[in-house]
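I had to read the description of the data format several times before I understood it. For illustration, here is how one protein appears when written out as sequence plus structure tokens:
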Amino acid sequence: MSPWLRADSRELSAASSGWNWPPYIIFPLIAAALLYAVGIVRTQRRSHRIQSLPVAFFVAGWLSLLLALDSPIHEISEQLFWVHMTQHEILMLISAPLLVLSRPAAPFLWALPESWRAPVAGIARLSFIRRTWLMVSAPIAAWLLSAIALWAWHAPRLFVAALDSDLAHAAQHLSFLGTAILFWWALFHNHAGRLGYGGAILYVFTTAIHTSVLGAWLTFSPQVWYAPYTNTAPLWHLSAIQDQQLGGLIMWVPAGTLLTVVALILLGKWITHSQTRWEYSQTAALIRASQGAAE
């Protein structure tokens, strides 16, 4: 069992009041920040134009990862299910889309020594790597992988395993973040291509539906799904079922609302795009008609 589940309330309160700075979380985060900063500086020195918005997206995404993985949220998530759900929502709905919008691949490449850049870029161009990326980043694959990760890790046996094992917990977070990055990448970079606006709306809306279904199931279930929280939730003056209901609501309402808003934004863009194309076609028809009359 996790040491958090064996501690008394005084130990829990003291330990959850600060930041732990575990090396396996902090070192990758610091390395990513340094690589990105070096890449941006080198790009600027080469007189390439630096866009401030992607940099702001990266900083916000990086800070959200730090908040989710190292702040007291991380430790309290092993004591309260609703905090665990909040942590997951930060990873999937805040960190992932911000990191995708920041487009960090180019700065990371520029951060490498000059002699390494061409070989690393060459690896990315290998046919096997390209085929694999095209396969997993295809909209249907990205949608399916993110849905599988969400539902599988909320199965009681796997979820409790993540509470009992740091390795399983890390695998849970990596799968949530990784599949969410694939999901948002397919949406942001493929909605005008393989997806189209109509496909993008369906892509997001169906995700909102199955996420809300899981959240509602957790909220209205008469049984506690995750037994370890029966020992820790009362330390925070909540019953395990109340804790589960709060977690289900967090997955159901905020997440479902955000995804629905994204779908509505895409719908608005689709309408605007369709209107522009219609106006263009009407203008082109008038020009052709006037040219025919002149002849």
User: Anything to note?
Assistant: The radius of gyration is 23 Å. The longest helix spans residues 240-294. The mean pLDDT is 83. DSSP finds 14 helices and no strands in the chain.
